Amino acid sequence: MLLSFHSYKGGTGKTTFVGNLAVLLSMRGERVCIIDTDVNGPGIHSLFNIKYELTLVDFLQGTCRPSDVVYRYGNNELYIVPSKACEEDIITMFDTPGEARDKMLGLINSIHKDLSIDHFLFDCSPGINRSSLLAMNIADRATIISTIDVQDIRGTYLLSSMADKLGTRAYLLFNRTPYDKRKEIDEVVKDFSKKLGTRLMGSICYDNSVARAWSRKLVMEEEPDCDYCLQLKEIADKLI
Length: 240
Fold this sequence. Notes:
This protein is α/β, with parallel strands linked by helices. It is built from ten helices and eight strands. It is 45% helix and 18% strand. The longest helix is centred in the middle third of the chain and has 19 residues, at 97-115.
């Protein structure tokens, strides 16, 4: 399954969610590959402490093979395709959007053939940009991760509309929800999701375990029974 993860703005906890979801799925015996398509501000390699030589950008630019940009993490079947920061987005590396799509699908098919991957997770760049829309177009399901910030909610509406135009099923997840406002917020987001026509995955409350990690640790490994991880497990059961 191809799953893309989006946010309108940075700071929603998207990359942290994607990383910990991948760890959870691999712990359950699934074969997972994360592809960092945020070529303007990549972060997956830092979260997993991947020391890389070649990345997604090198493959897209035609300087290496697919196998050169895949890095195994830990003892489970979890693989990372990191990115490095560059000024271009994925689409501008090619003459047409179709060529960019074919190149990405070529990478996915090659990795799947070599490693029998069950789930590809795309950590997409924030906002509405061509790299993010490319991943959304490729994906079977697009999950939009938002906070209750007004700008985030407005942007989520736009992202959901783009998913609808691309024919990709959109899912909605609210993250970093304050505990003391959870019941009130849950009612609001249910109504919002219904109006959008997206499937609501739920909301994840802010957790100090994640804050202490400073985006340098994977709490699913360090504290798998913390509130954040328990909430993430519920979301994973709905998503997969």
